[in-house]
Amino acid sequence: MPVTNALESLHMRLRKIVKNRGHFPSDEAATKLLFLALRNIEKDWKMPQRTWRQAANQFAIMFGERFTNAID
User: Fold this and answer.
1) What is the pTM of this model?
2) Number of folded domains that form the chain
């Protein structure tokens, strides 16, 4: 799958989740929802992007045990 199609697919899935939710009380609530959505979407990937490990390491630094426990 070309990169463009993969990104468009990811964007479509995230848009659908945000649209279904509708309203967020804060930016933090929206960020948490997108984080959880990305975590669930990753499970469907057949071949994760090469840079995902770098991104995962950054998320682990930012979110600590909440992220590392979620991927175990």
Assistant:
1) 0.56
2) 1
